[in-house]
Design a protein that fits this description.
The protein is an alpha/beta fold and 180 residues long. 30% of the residues lie in helices and 21% in strands. α2 (45-56) runs parallel beside α3 (76-83).
């Protein structure tokens, strides 16, 4: 079976982690995302899959919904959510926020409601005015040591009506067993 065209695992290091990433949002709109390194500030396959999933939903699924992307990295899923009509807040650690903000600035239109904020998992989330309608997370399930903080943050941001979408790449069965 051939690899999907969008899959990045077979590409060079430079293509995967250093070049400007291009995401075809629609026939007449391409999003360009700056990447900084091979860890948190690059576009991972899980983010592409989550973005494509969001685009497959009925328009009303995201329109005017309060959406937060946790551990946004480059921010692809959150930017796509904003382009689909959500009031999107993209969050990550303080050191990631500059590249995230540049990506939002270079991709959002005047009518899109997308902002960037710092969020350290396990910290106070009251300024986000929970509960949110939707929480997105792409490749945030990777390190067992951070799970208690991630889970606490998700609990603090959500209620029983909040939809939480977590996309991840299968890597370590023990991590998946613990989280899911």
């Amino acid at each position: 079976m051939a690899e999907p065209e969008w899959r990045r695992n077979k590409r060079s290091y430079k293509e995967r982690f250093e070049d400007i990433f291009q995401y075809e949002f629609s026939n007449d709109r391409i999003m360009y995302l700056e990447q900084e390194d091979a860890t948190v500030s690059c576009v991972w396959d899980a983010s592409i899959v989550l973005s494509k999933y969001l685009q497959s939903l009925p328009v009303s699924s995201l329109a005017n919904k309060r959406v937060l992307e946790i551990g946004a990295g480059c921010g692809l899923a959150g930017i796509v959510a904003g382009a689909l009509g959500a009031k999107a807040v993209l969050t990550d650690m303080q050191e990631i926020v500059p590249v995230l903000q540049r990506n939002v600035n270079s991709n959002k239109t005047d009518v899109e409601d997308i902002s960037v904020r710092t969020l350290l998992w396990g910290s106070d989330v009251s300024s986000f005015k929970p509960p949110l309608d939707i929480i997105l997370g792409a490749d945030v399930v990777y390190e067992i040591q951070g799970f208690s903080y991630l889970i606490q943050t998700l609990k603090d941001l959500a209620d029983t009506h909040t939809e939480i979408y977590i996309a991840y790449e299968h890597r370590w069965p023990d991590v998946e067993e613990w989280f899911f």
